Amino acid sequence: MEVEVKLRLPNSNAHQRLSTLLSPHHLKTHFQENIFFDTTNSLLSTNLAALRLRFYDLDTRCIISLKAKPMITQGVSIVQEDEEVIDPSIGRACMAHPCKLLLLDSSRIIERVKEEYDIGDDTEMVCLGGFRNVNKNVRNVYEWNGLKLELDETDYDFGTCFEIECESSEPKKAKNLLEEMLRSNGIEYSYSTVSKFAVFRSGKMPQ
């Protein structure tokens, strides 16, 4: 189970101000590419599940993940998540030929997908696309007040979203700390209401 605080920033100016404020606490920067898959009859999405490949830093690393039953309330996101590392070259081969996903017999996640959603080896899979990037989809990671913060700039075909996330076992405490920091520094924000995948699938910026 993944529990995260998700706060949306209204524009690049707020994102830059927060980035500057957090700069003394910077740990690392990731460039990400997120690609999603489903069956041709949308078996996963109709069951509130998302199968994703995430490539890090020009194919340095690749993680396959299954997220299911997402809920987000007052800026706190709860989602069932399972993930594992795979060879980036295998991930790229699955992008080119989505049917190869179901042939990854060594993948615990693919076995879960088959069993939980009744998907056979001959089921036709499709690549839905995703948030592809070279210079955008930047995630900056910070260590601040005992919290691991992830400041995202996510570039969709229809616009760019800015968000700060914090995974925590004490989300109420983490949210209070984050909100106080933002308010005291005059940085506008709002509670995120949908996931990045939901934004991508909707084809429009969240309101």
Automatic annotation (TrEMBL):
GO MF annotation, one: pyrophosphatase activity
Pfam families recorded: CYTH
Origin superkingdom: Eukaryota
InterPro entries: CYTH-like_dom_sf (IPR033469), CYTH_domain (IPR023577)
Domain CYTH stretches: 1-204
Species annotation: Lithospermum erythrorhizon
Name this polypeptide is given: CYTH domain-containing protein
SMART domains associated with the record: CYTH (SM01118)
Stretch forming the signal peptide: none
